[in-house]
Specification:
3-stranded mixed β-sheet, 3-stranded parallel β-sheet, 7 helices, 207 residues, alpha/beta
């Protein structure tokens, strides 16, 4: 797709994950960081974009957190399925791992702004909330589903998280301060916990 734009001033938007902006020593993800060693499979997309940018092709990247509404909520949707399988909604230890989030309507607006006002080679963060802790997320889901909520030890992660075990302890917090200042993006949608509280858990949604 990028090859087709060579020699033009037409932009292409790609989608990536917030985690790829996390510094190697941990901490808050920022737009100026590209961690080539990050485990997120989307790193392949960002590395391909970097190669195109080096050739002066106008690539702009949107990094997504947990994108939510009252029907679906990013990685949290399959997490609910794993909780039902295990019979409880779990969090690891004190539940301090945090995930950034944004309402789908705000994310959609950011894509438009990145296309209309974005800069070649720029990376934009769609994080309306920098991070909501795992315990708070688990308690909201437990209330909605009727599942018990419990803290688990690390040796129980596979049992309660299944294929999502690698995500169970990740602290995926992200700033969007630069994005908001650069594009004038002002997220106003419902926050993650509001949507999880209002979600209809009787409806099964594909991950």
């Amino acid at each position: 797709m990028g090859e087709a734009l060579a020699g033009t001033d037409k932009p292409i938007l790609i989608t990536s994950g917030i985690g790829i902006g996390t510094p190697r020593n941990g901490g808050r993800a920022t737009e100026d960081v590209l961690n080539p060693l990050h485990a997120n499979p989307r790193i392949v997309t960002e590395l391909a974009a970097a190669a195109l940018i080096a050739r002066r092709i106008d690539v702009r990247t949107i990094r997504l957190p947990q994108v939510h509404d009252t029907t679906k909520a990013g990685l949290i949707t399959p997490l609910v399925a794993e909780a039902r399988r295990a019979g409880a909604m779990a969090y690891v230890g004190e539940g301090t791992a945090r995930w950034a989030a944004a309402h789908v309507s705000d994310v959609a607006k950011l894509y438009v702004l990145a296309l209309e006002r974005g800069e070649p080679g720029a990376r934009y963060h769609a994080s309306a909330e920098e991070g909501i802790d795992a315990r708070t997320i688990a308690e909201a889901i437990g209330k909605g589903t009727g599942l018990p909520v419990r803290s688990i030890a690390e040796n129980e992660i596979e049992r309660y998280f299944g294929w999502m075990a690698p995500f169970s302890k990740l602290d995926m917090i992200a700033s969007s301060s630069w994005t908001q200042a650069r594009l004038g993006w002002k997220p106003v949608g419902p926050d993650l916990i509001d949507d999880l509280t209002a979600m209809d858990y009787s409806v099964t949604v594909a991950a």
